[in-house]
Amino acid sequence: MTRILVLLPLLAFTASGAPGDSSAVSAGDLRVEYATNPLGIDSLQPRLSWVLTSAERAQKQTAYRVLVASSAEKLDAGTGDLWDSGKVASSQSTQVAYGGTPLASRQRCYWKVRVWDKNGLPTRYSATASWEMGLLTPFHWKARWVGYPPGWPGRALYFRADLDVAKPIRRARAYVAGLGYCELRINGARVGDHVLDPAWTDYSKRVLYSTYDVGSHLHPGKNAIAVIVGNGWYGMAKLLAQIELTYEDGSTVTLPTNGGHIHPVWSVTSGPILGNSIYDGETYDARLEKTGWDLAGPEGPAPADRTEGWDVAVPVEPPGGRLVSQSLEPIKIVESFAPNSVSRPALGIAVYDAGRNLAGWAELRAQGERGTRVTLRFAESLAADGTVNQENLRKAAATDVYVLKGGGAETWEPRFTYHGFRYVQVEGLPGEPGLENLRIKVVRSAVEPNGTIETSNDLINRIQQMVWRTEASNLHGVPTDCPQRDERQGWMNDLTVRLEEAVYNFKLNRFLPKFLADVRDTQDADGAITDTVPFRWGFRPADPVSASYLLLAWYQYLHYGDTRAMAEHFDGLKAWTAYLSRRSQDGIVTYGNWGDWSPPKEFAVLGDLGTGAVSKNTPVPLISTGYLYYCSRLVASMAQVLGKEEDRIKHEELARRVASAFNREFWNEQTGGYGANNQAANSFALFLGLVPESRIPRVVENLVRDVREHGNHLTTGNLCTKYLLEALTLNGRMDVAYDVVNQTSYPSWGFMLESGATTLWERWEHMTGGQMNSHNHPMMGSVSAWFYKYLGGINADPAAPGFKRIILRPYSEKRLEWVRSSYTSPHGLIRSSWRRDNGAFIYSITVPVNSTATVYVPTADPGRVMEGGKPAARSDGVRWVKNEKGAAVFEIGSGDYRFSSPL
Ligand code: BGC
User: Fold this and answer.
1) 161-175, 606-620, 885-899: lowest mean pLDDT where?
2) Residue 487 CB–ligand 1 contact under 6 Å
3) Distance 207 CA to ligand 1 centre (A)
4) Distance, CA 489 to ligand 1 centroid (Å)?
5) pLDDT score for 19
6) What is the rounded average pLDDT for all residues in the chain?
7) Is 98 helix (H, G, I), strand (E, B) or coil?
8) Model pTM greater than 0.85?
9) Element housing 538 (H / E)
10) Residue from 473, 481, 719 to probe ligand 1 pocket by mutation (most atoms less than 8 Å from CB)
11) Reading across the β-sheet that carries 311-312, which strands appear in turn?
12) Packed helices 645-666 and 679-688: angle between N→C axes, nearest 10 degrees
């Protein structure tokens, strides 16, 4: 019975053609500026997107109509009073810029969309989605920065104010920026689930504020608004907050931090958080908790406490930066679990094992006498005696302390620190330590995981998992180098090779533009950027290998189809390239500090304390010059996208000059290779396309010979490891690349795993002492992008970015039985999975609606490629394009396909 009911509407859809019919396509996952129903949009022309689904093959959008209304009721009635796009003949379903009435601060917009499918049939309207504008100009901020009266105790600050709610509320918002990090509370409860908020920026340039809908937290009468502010990356805690109420009758009330004795007064005190530092940890003395401090009315602070210890929050020097709405995903606790085991290496010491390395903290559950001090020390490895080894954290104390208030069960977790760890050593815990005393919390920017890949080779699966975990540990508002030691910086050199892996594994369409703005904030009048962003470590100017600045914009375009970020930053990207060009002589850039950083130690110059990781054989000028070439090519490509013809020509010309300088300077006719004819130099030259056609065979031969001579091991550092695998694969030697990846002896990813790694190391060596050796460092993780691109075969097409057109091109490496991969594109889920079956290659594909794919089906006989049991060229939705060496190439529309071909 139920079956029939379900089938009925489907039948109605398939009877095609007649006017009034609606399409079998439906539109969902409506987003604005990549977010679902966001608050605090500060773009005046927000970009809209939707995802189409359909059970039919080769479905696509031929037109759309967007309605945007000022109220849900108007929208329901079919009126787009803010914008009615009308029927637009276009296949664009992402990056559709709002084109209606100018939008104002705080404005709420409700919207829906319908599209016309490949047959010209309209879909029903989607469900309603919404967005709300942020505070668009400084003028809308009534609040001022407030802080502690002179003589700040160095502790976290507790701010509070009372808010009277006199009438029924229509809309209630809190706009909050507490530096370094803050937590908003109303009437004793935390608002939202952000932690370590707002994201780190150069606060003298930009400060991010968060917007909360606080309606459900307020009640009639007196309410307490409270904010705890920690030091974070800023230092002296300060707060800017503005609570806004609109009553049902249209009247409004604003409660800004105002500094001074203006009613209502914000007061400030210090409290139980005695110490808070990102590197060193948090110290919390529960005995100092002020009961009811964040409550109002009779439940609030006891009369004596209301004034005692509290001061009026006074105006303080603002951090200086522009206020910008936080548009990237906030940092959150994304996972929490019980530790695997606990051991007792010494009296009074319990060591918990989370089972894997991660970034976050531990929640403590304890019961004991008032004043008992429990210490938690975090580390990535253990010493021989089973206690934690914190040596590689350098100066970071990574220690939390909790002092019990007594009188019952107590649960505590820190607010203003985070640690990179696998082990937690707990000292002073009353009673017998059990697994229930600790909960592990995984903390990062709450970006969505985006790709999956699995193969018949378990080593590859474990490498992939190791890279994924490492990347996940290092997305903290900034793409950090590591989460554990006294560093945690946005290193631009690492990012150059890390970005592609990151965008395959996570949806970074909101994260990348935020970081692009961070980079721009470091740029000086000469065009120079800095090694780390925000700038704290390394040098200005950044190492020339920091093509990451350009790649941020490029991947934002390639993976998400976003040209706005590229356009907005184009001048800055050009200026960095021009800076490098000015630092060149006859086309050669000679400066550089890091080059192909951190190769296996016998290929590195040993520095102080064995920390040196500069490549011995790969000349810095070769690497730096290669990156000037790369940057000029990237600028030329972006200029082409943006229609800036003059810039394109100029940068292609620059690229040509640098290419010939590179060949003049680094080519060695005798050896048939570049520089020292080593893996790094040769693969970099090949990857960049700097090797003239006639020389390619010799260079590839040298590259292969070098890998073989090193027993199928790499000799490369953070950068050229990426290029080694790509150069081999793209030049017909997938087998050799696979040998390197499949390696388990030193140096290799497999060696890390065999030595017990659960996240990537910074060095190829297994080091655990006081030297530079993080155990959670994404810079060696580019291999994961290689998995997606060449094993899974999922690639974006720069000519139709955002996976509007997908290039599916798996390499059928003999030793693999099967591969299953997927990627959530802006148009929907892509699947690319294959297996071998009795000499046949079985290839299953899903292409999302409104996308097409160019598919390279590996085969020994293009004439015998089948799809869905028919000769492929005759199958519905499939068009044969050409045959290539070892592959038949087809163009396909959306839907599920199953190719089979003789190998
Ligand atoms: C960072 C690395 C970075 C290097 C460059 C180190 O301290 O951790 O990720 O590549 O510095 O010098």
Assistant:
1) 606-620
2) yes
3) 26
4) 8
5) 45
6) 95
7) coil
8) yes
9) none
10) 481
11) 189-190, 181-186, 221-230, 157-165, 267-270, 311-312
12) 150
